Amino acid sequence: MRAISTVVDVTLCLLLVSASAFVLVGAKPLDSPIRTRTAESTANVLETSTANVNYTISSDSGTVHPTTHGTLAEHLGKAALANTMIRGTESSPTSDSFERAVGRRVWERLGYPADVQLLVRWEPYRDSELGGRFALGESPPHDADVHAAVRSIPSGMPRVRTRALAAARRDGYRGVARVVAAGIVAGLVPNESTRLALRDRETGIVVARRFRRLIRSYDAVDSASPRLGSQQTRRALIDAMARTIESDIRRSFGTPTDAARSVAVGRTELVVRTWSA
Question: 113 by DSSP, 3-state: which?
């Protein structure tokens, strides 16, 4: 199990990437576990039950104990985003504190089921080399009767599919790639929040390390540049990422419109699997 570590890696991911938390009227309290084993009802519980998730992050500056609030489905999506990988390499240092906290909260609400598996995936477009994954529970037995429910959950990242479709008609693959790259950068390293974090004495080193990892992964600019928060650096990262995405979608999709239709920067996919022997 993996998740991002250090004071800013998880804190920023949750602050910058997750959608605003909200409480749904009628959500059942956490002290009343749901023991329903159907995939649909389990998915409904995850979408309508809210909870606080408390976790611990340690850095050279000390230890903090953040709390994040949202639906259980949103927490699962945040865990997938925290596990963002680029070409098989993690985008941030890892720690399992946040994922363990999410897992405990979700399993507590569901009543610690042995016949449920939750799979969460974030991909900015189909078969992308960049994406995040999170899983809870064991895989079902080979001879089990398995049922599944699929939910699309807001990722907190920009919703850019409409713009991607317009760009496909106007500028082809290059336009789609540019829209997707700009959406990813806006979601993972939002402009003002990143600039403020870089100025902070305790978090600046960690944020800079995470930003540089993205820059290095896409060979954007000199990763030692001291102006990580500048517009020039952000534009260079978007340009480099767009070149990679364009090459990728040209290989994978027959037309620019097909590529644009697969864009899902603003969504995570939750799959609930339940089974009986």
Answer: coil
